Amino acid sequence: MILKLKPELNTQQRDLFISFLQGQGIDFLLREIYGMHLCLIFSDIENAQIVYLSSLPFIEEVVDTPKEYLLASNTWKKSSTCFDVEGQIIGGKEINIIAGPCSVESEEQIFKIAEHLHSLGLKFIRGGAYKPRTSPYRFQGLGIDGLKYIRKAADAYDLRVVTEVIDSSLIPEVSEYADILQVGSRNMQNYYFLKQLGKINKPVLLKRGMYARIDEWLMAAEYILSAGNEKVILCERGIRTFDTSVRNTMDITAFPLIKSLSHLPVFSDPSHGTGIRNLVTPLALASVAAGADGIMVEIHPDPDKALSDGMQSLYLEQFTDLINKARQVAAAINRSLDNDSANDKQKKQNICVE
Amino acid sequence: MILKLKPELNTQQRDLFISFLQGQGIDFLLREIYGMHLCLIFSDIENAQIVYLSSLPFIEEVVDTPKEYLLASNTWKKSSTCFDVEGQIIGGKEINIIAGPCSVESEEQIFKIAEHLHSLGLKFIRGGAYKPRTSPYRFQGLGIDGLKYIRKAADAYDLRVVTEVIDSSLIPEVSEYADILQVGSRNMQNYYFLKQLGKINKPVLLKRGMYARIDEWLMAAEYILSAGNEKVILCERGIRTFDTSVRNTMDITAFPLIKSLSHLPVFSDPSHGTGIRNLVTPLALASVAAGADGIMVEIHPDPDKALSDGMQSLYLEQFTDLINKARQVAAAINRSLDNDSANDKQKKQNICVE
Amino acid sequence: MILKLKPELNTQQRDLFISFLQGQGIDFLLREIYGMHLCLIFSDIENAQIVYLSSLPFIEEVVDTPKEYLLASNTWKKSSTCFDVEGQIIGGKEINIIAGPCSVESEEQIFKIAEHLHSLGLKFIRGGAYKPRTSPYRFQGLGIDGLKYIRKAADAYDLRVVTEVIDSSLIPEVSEYADILQVGSRNMQNYYFLKQLGKINKPVLLKRGMYARIDEWLMAAEYILSAGNEKVILCERGIRTFDTSVRNTMDITAFPLIKSLSHLPVFSDPSHGTGIRNLVTPLALASVAAGADGIMVEIHPDPDKALSDGMQSLYLEQFTDLINKARQVAAAINRSLDNDSANDKQKKQNICVE
Amino acid sequence: MILKLKPELNTQQRDLFISFLQGQGIDFLLREIYGMHLCLIFSDIENAQIVYLSSLPFIEEVVDTPKEYLLASNTWKKSSTCFDVEGQIIGGKEINIIAGPCSVESEEQIFKIAEHLHSLGLKFIRGGAYKPRTSPYRFQGLGIDGLKYIRKAADAYDLRVVTEVIDSSLIPEVSEYADILQVGSRNMQNYYFLKQLGKINKPVLLKRGMYARIDEWLMAAEYILSAGNEKVILCERGIRTFDTSVRNTMDITAFPLIKSLSHLPVFSDPSHGTGIRNLVTPLALASVAAGADGIMVEIHPDPDKALSDGMQSLYLEQFTDLINKARQVAAAINRSLDNDSANDKQKKQNICVE
After folding, report:
1. Residue B250 and residue B278 in one domain
2. Residue D312 lies in a domain
């Protein structure tokens, strides 16, 4: 249940109302979020109390929401959420493309990739510096050196950096170098960590847990939103099923389903979603056709020598081909890619899909 | 392992060769399939024997195939399989559209739907007469009356009939009325039944078991192929996973994956795949983008009164919208829908995708 | 909803009541089952009608049941179902042991096993004559010869035969040789087939589908029960999950869960449930501890040469050890094995667990 | 691959050998673990190098291990691992019992439970102070107050404390109050966190991820072991499958399977494993029968008023009944419960199962 307060409420009236609610012993959160004045009341509230509160003069609207993910729900916020990341719009009508290696391996490697992205007019680069590997004996990433290399390459080619943060203690360090912080599939329900990410002022790309139901994913987003960070991007990356033909099973249904439940942007990661290079492009196209707001893929100048996930990384030429095909499919559903904008000015005017 | 015999082999030479193989105690199947002369040798054959057989003058080619699905594999048959169903090509460059109600409920209902399909230029109607229902207390279908109604409606509107057969004892009856026999998800590993379907002269649309791995699905197809029926259509209809947000999880990866393993056409059933009406169109588009050769959807003039699966049936107008969007996405990947052909002559020339 | 009619009702009164119900347009089944007079009314009935019917003088009791599995539910039949199979009680306090090879391979093989079972005082032998194999190129069973061999061996050693029937057309043949007909996991939702099995007068051992929820399994049993066959044995044999460490994941929870929902006996098949020989005994013991009413295991005099499922078959000595351990665990929960009865007379008196 | 060095090696010789290996550019870890001198060589090593190293005079034994979990494997350490926790043996022949509430709710609540455990002769209490909850709007635990209450209650009744730590930043605080630190299912692949837990001197109870394969679970344990902490307890708590009849599916096969792969103790948590109170006891018994080394269950003096997981918490009397039954089943497989020891002296002599 969300109660929207009237915008004309002054601070004194507001404080009075809050004191009144506290006096009633009702648990609630007060938030100004997405530019709206609002007041959250949780699931425990009784119907009689709702009726009573609705009758008060301070209330503009009472919105019934899912009990567990209030802020992530589109019952109270009808418009899609979009926001600016260093001049690029996420969650708008244009589909964002993020690409890069699984791991930052060297300055040379990441510069080569950054140059290729720039040549295609792309705006986002990804690359892991701290890698969550299933075995302790596999390459764990370059750490802070990796962060420095990717930042340097991004700055050289006008790119925004997306990279993973794997522990709450690393948030300050990663925030210094990244434009978007990625939370990996295995950390999606690491709630203490999510709360810390709710306190920073950078967007968070929240990968779906490979075992997470849609509602659990939205509740994980709610941890970040309710702690104060409005900029959450969901990212489907394949779920774990009985079928071991591929590494994971891409849940393409997640795109229209999330759109029917939430205002948050939802991206697709077909590289982890399939784990097999030749399946990446068809699944990227399927994601676009189904309504994904962005595509994140792994690319590598020499995939066979990659220190991690080489099997699923595209060759640079394959990636160029993916971009061309994705542009066609996007056009078929009346959208475009983010590297196709003639100018920024026009983009700002088309900031959100209606 | 498949041995292709030389086409110039005469009957006498062939019989001699067969006698020779039998004398060696080697188990094998002899088949003329897809217009090729061939001889199958099974997985038990030893390497030394392969070397020896390869050296014989009667052998054109020795092809290494997966052990369990030889005929379904594309290792020996490189070209996509396509065939004619009463004047319509399945498995060609054009994407086939099959639509109709979950169950045939009355003559009036199925005529109404047939008329709508005809008005859209479509060529295939589906509808269940024998229904496999989870509970014995739910509507089990009209049986033979249902078959008669759908045949009559199809004949009136130049449509081909796709309907399910649920037991080996019903194959003769259903074959009399249907143009394509559908095998349901729950019967995909009913092997005795599959063998019977291998002996008929009608195409079989083989739904994927909701629990079946890709290789198990291909082995089920192999039961039909190895019994002599060359006309098998695979149909993805959603798999069962932990996520209960939707009825099933559409495995969109199955389309490019099947294409990389097999020459058989593979269709998509987003109605069962999602179980929710509003998700059907996005998933149909995703299937097309990922490479599906056909789309099968449930439609109903009045879904809320449907005797089965109303929740996932499209309204007729929604279906028209789906067709329009699917045409756009098909064009984006350089394909078209089967109702868009200007004339049959041209179609015959483009019989298969290269 | 189940309405139990008063036992003193005579035929005339009963016919009158039935005519009355039919006149009301209410769908129902009339059954004398498990020795009770009863009348089933299905889920569609309205509350007002229930109230009205309850008030009639012919009605002894109105029982609210699950809508989808009425007869399988323990809401109306509180006592556990047990029945006699050629002198042996199934579903009683004693735990039944069924053992034998995956496939009947020869007369000699099955006689050797039958002799071993007899030496341990056991009463049931299993063995497949018609085998549902994932690939068409694997051993498909000896067919009718296999049935003849196992019957002959069973008769020689006072054993009852459990064997699988894989198609409705084979029911008459298999019924001639078997004492209990087994339905395999892949046929659990082959409903047309289940209905045929409801019309025979032999017990049916219904394996759980590897993908079937508990309620779906009970609904499959309901198909058999509602068609008139009261003798259904459920058998857990492992479900399919993401974990490929073993062939299937034994769902041990199924035993107490089924006991809380149904009156039917429930057996355990740890051979298919694990697929690995060394795990069979621990899982058999766990099944007993959790409340299974019977254990079915695969054994073979020479597992490494078995034509099917050798990996999961116990050596004969391992099986003897399993029996000894299972006897200890059964005693710990106040039950015993069926080969331990001093005499039949006493057994008949303890026919069911309370 | 593990190389065990000869115990008589002096420091100088050892340093020499290490320098030599480093000079060869071979990656390795050097560890004294479980009282043995050893040297780890990782998966990348080539066969020729192994042959060479094996020939050196410093090497006692070369053991081939799984590549990904070397230290957790029982290929090099044949004996079961057991260790002392404040006077109680974990991983020995006696089965440990850990019980307590899901959450510490108040000092009174936890004292009441502690008293009950003491009255049954039990030695371990569990209770959450920091709770990982799916929704941010559910009770998140009492935090440090919860830790203080459970420590106080444990000290009053001679109990050892098991409690969860949910973030690397909380390890010092939780270590101060707990005797065993629990890692929750959702954190099982939070690798950075696991590495921190490898540096402390307290045992870690590592719950299996609800989506984790057996090998992934062992690799998670390897993160802790390879960072230097030898005291790891594995704990099966149910995996996520398609079947939603219960909260999770207890994987009882995990007990004998882990025993066949690893030397680590493995416990069972049937409370989370089933999520339903009436299923807890049967599954606890099944776990014992299958070879679990310990049982951890949730109990509550008033489950219906519990702030979390009340549905799966046993009433205190139910728990007493579970203990009595578990004792019987343990005896059937020749083991006993840890509250049954006549005296500590005898226990120390029977420290490990052979």
Report:
1. yes
2. yes
- The one-character DSSP state at A239 is B
Q: List the chains bordering chain D where 3 or more Cβ pairs fall under 8 Å.
A: A, B, C
The domain that contains B320 carries what CATH number? 3.20.20.70
Check if C12 contacts D (Cβ < 8 Å): no
What is the count of structural domains for chain A?
2
- Best of D191, D213, D243, D307 to substitute, by most chain A Cβ atoms within 10 angstroms, is D191
**Residue B141 and residue B146: Cα distance in Å, rounded?**
7
- B316 and B191: one domain? yes
What ipTM did this prediction achieve?
A: 0.94
Residue of B nearest to C191 (CA): B132
Chain A residues close to B256, C-beta within 8 Å: 278-279, 282-283
- A306 is written with which tokens? 């990659």
Residue D351's pLDDT is 54
Q: Which ranges of chain D have pLDDT less than 50?
A: 342-343, 345, 349, 353-354
Rounded distance, CA C63 to CA C65, Å?
6
**Dist. CA D256–CA D260, nearest whole Å:** 6
| Amino acid at site C132 | P
C57 and C87 in a single domain? The answer is no
- Interface residue B137 vs chain D (CB under 8 A): no
Same domain (yes/no): D130, D41: no
Lowest mean pLDDT among A298-312, B194-208, C120-134, C159-173: A298-312
The one-character DSSP state at C135 is S
**Is A240's CB within 8 Å of C244's CB?**
no
Q: Which of A71, A133, A192, A207 should be substituted to probe chain D, the one whose Cβ sees the most D Cβ atoms within 10 Å?
A: A192
Instruction: Report pLDDT for D14.
Output: 83
Domain of residue A28: give its range: 2-63
On the question of pLDDT at C211 being above 70, the answer is yes
Answer whether residue C302 is part of any domain: yes
Res C198: pLDDT: 97
Q: Do C240 and A240 touch (CB under 8 A)?
A: no
Residue B241: its chain D contacts at CB < 8 A?
242
Using CA atoms, how far apart are residues A193 and A187, in angstroms rounded to an integer?
Answer: 8
- C286–D289 C-beta distance less than 8 A: yes
Are C285 and C323 spatial neighbours (Cβ–Cβ below 8 Å)? Answer: no
- What residues contact D204, with CB distance under 8 A and at least 6 apart? D180, D181, D182, D183, D197, D224, D229, D231, D232, D233
pTM for the whole thing?
A: 0.95
The reply to whether B276 and B343 lie within a common domain is yes
What pLDDT is stored for residue A21 in this prediction?
Answer: 82
Determine, for residues D136 and A226 on separate chains, whether the beta-carbon distance falls below 8 Å: yes
Residues C116 and C264 in one domain: yes
**Predicted local confidence at residue B345, as pLDDT:** 47
Residues A295 and A284 sit within 8 Å (Cβ to Cβ): yes
Within-domain flag for A72: no
Considering chain C, what percentage of its residues have pLDDT values greater than 90?
A: 71
**Residue A317 and residue A186 in one domain:** yes
Residue B244 has φ and ψ, to the nearest 5°, of: -95, 15
Q: Which residue has the tokens 């009075």?
A: A16
Task: Say whether both D18 and D163 belong to one domain.
Answer: no
Sequence length of chain D is 354
C-chain CB neighbours of A244 within 8 Å are: 244
Positions of chain A with pLDDT lower than 50, given as ranges: 342-343, 345, 349, 353-354
Query: Does some domain include residue B354?
Result: no
How confident is the model at residue B63, as a pLDDT? 87
